[in-house]
Specification:
Required for mobilization of iron from the bacterioferritin (BFR) complex. The chain is built from four helices and two strands. The chain is mainly alpha-helical and about 60 residues long. The termini are far apart. About 15% of the residues are buried. The structure holds FE2/S2 (inorganic) cluster.
Length: about 60
Protein backbone atom coordinates (compact mmCIF):
# COMPACT_ATOMS: atom_id res chain seq x y z
CA UNK A 1 0.00 0.00 0.00
CA UNK A 2 1.30 3.44 -0.89
CA UNK A 3 1.80 5.70 2.09
CA UNK A 4 3.42 8.63 0.35
CA UNK A 5 1.53 9.11 -2.89
CA UNK A 6 3.58 12.13 -3.96
CA UNK A 7 6.77 10.06 -4.04
CA UNK A 8 5.27 6.62 -4.67
CA UNK A 9 6.65 5.14 -1.44
CA UNK A 10 4.94 2.10 0.05
CA UNK A 11 4.67 0.92 3.65
CA UNK A 12 6.94 -1.99 2.68
CA UNK A 13 9.70 0.38 1.56
CA UNK A 14 9.38 2.42 4.74
CA UNK A 15 9.59 -0.70 6.92
CA UNK A 16 12.64 -1.90 4.96
CA UNK A 17 14.39 1.45 5.44
CA UNK A 18 13.62 1.46 9.18
CA UNK A 19 14.99 -2.06 9.57
CA UNK A 20 18.08 -1.22 7.55
CA UNK A 21 19.00 2.20 8.94
CA UNK A 22 17.31 2.32 12.38
CA UNK A 23 16.41 6.01 12.15
CA UNK A 24 15.87 7.69 15.51
CA UNK A 25 13.50 10.30 14.12
CA UNK A 26 11.40 11.17 11.14
CA UNK A 27 14.07 13.66 10.07
CA UNK A 28 16.66 10.89 9.98
CA UNK A 29 14.37 8.67 7.94
CA UNK A 30 14.02 11.48 5.42
CA UNK A 31 17.76 11.34 4.79
CA UNK A 32 17.29 7.89 3.31
CA UNK A 33 14.14 8.47 1.26
CA UNK A 34 12.27 11.49 -0.09
CA UNK A 35 9.24 11.23 2.12
CA UNK A 36 6.78 13.89 3.25
CA UNK A 37 8.62 16.51 1.24
CA UNK A 38 5.74 17.63 -0.93
CA UNK A 39 2.16 17.80 0.39
CA UNK A 40 3.08 16.44 3.83
CA UNK A 41 -0.16 14.44 4.21
CA UNK A 42 1.76 11.22 4.79
CA UNK A 43 3.88 12.44 7.70
CA UNK A 44 1.65 11.14 10.50
CA UNK A 45 1.21 7.72 8.87
CA UNK A 46 4.96 7.44 8.24
CA UNK A 47 5.76 8.29 11.87
CA UNK A 48 3.33 5.64 13.10
CA UNK A 49 4.76 3.05 10.73
CA UNK A 50 8.29 3.93 11.78
CA UNK A 51 7.48 3.59 15.49
CA UNK A 52 5.69 0.30 14.90
CA UNK A 53 8.59 -1.12 12.92
CA UNK A 54 11.21 0.06 15.45
CA UNK A 55 9.31 -1.74 18.21
CA UNK A 56 9.71 -4.97 16.29
CA UNK A 57 13.49 -4.69 16.20
CA UNK A 58 14.85 -6.68 19.17
CA UNK A 59 17.40 -4.13 20.43
CA UNK A 60 14.77 -1.35 20.40
CA UNK A 61 12.26 -3.54 22.22
CA UNK A 62 14.62 -3.69 25.18
CA UNK A 63 14.89 0.10 25.35
CA UNK A 64 11.14 0.75 24.96
S1 LIG B 1 1.89 12.03 0.33
FE1 LIG B 1 3.87 12.19 1.09
S2 LIG B 1 4.48 14.17 0.59
FE2 LIG B 1 2.52 14.01 -0.27
Amino acid sequence: MYVCLCNGISDKKIRQAVRQYHPQSFQQLRKFMPIGNQCGKCVRAVRELMEDELLQIPEFKEIA
